[in-house]
């Protein structure tokens, strides 16, 4: 597996779970510039990615690869982990069908309940 290039990661800035996840991802990136994180609600996102609606962006995280392909939600996770220290090995797990199915279910449950989860864990997350 070769070193992957910089990607743009868009997230829901109104969700403290999403914000904390972006901080964690940036902290654990293999390179300081591996990820460019942009809030879905930002003007920069609207200007740079006008084809992406606010609703689509807020529905799940969006990852724009260096070849301009966009991966959303659970489909973006393998490309994220390959850029993280200590987790690159887990990239191969995403190729296993049962893992992919489980990942899909877990990701979508968390995404659909992230505001409830955020309210529950907010006292434990540094803003």
Distance between the termini: 35 Å
- Counting copies of identical and different chains, the oligomeric state is single chain
The whole-angstrom Rg is 14 Å
Mean pLDDT score = 89
Q: What's the number of helices?
A: 6
- The backbone outline, from C-alpha atoms, is globular
Major sheet, described briefly?
4 strands, mixed
Strand order of the largest sheet: 2-1-3-4
Unreliably modeled segments: none
What string, H for helix and E for strand, traces the elements in order?
A: EHEHHEEHHH
Number of domains: 1
Structural class: alpha+beta
The count of strands amounts to: 4
Percent strand equals 5-15%
**How much helix is in the residues?**
40-55%
What does it look like?
It holds the Pfam family DCC1-like. This is DUF393 domain-containing protein. The chain crosses the membrane at residues 92-110. This protein has helices spanning 16-27, 43-48, 54-59, 77-81, 97-112, 114-121; strands at residues 7-11, 35-39, 62-64, 70-72. With 127 residues, it is of the alpha+beta class. It has one domain (7-124). It has a four-stranded mixed β-sheet with strand order 2-1-3-4, covered by helices on one side. Strand 3 (62-64) and strand 4 (70-72) form a beta hairpin. It is globular, with a radius of gyration of 14 Å. The termini are far apart. The model has no long low-confidence stretch (mean pLDDT 89).
What is this structure's SSE topology?
Blueprint: E1 7-11, H1 16-27, E2 35-39, H2 43-48, H3 54-59, E3 62-64, E4 70-72, H4 77-81, H5 97-112, H6 114-121
Parallel strand pairs: 1-2
Antiparallel strand pairs: 1-3, 3-4
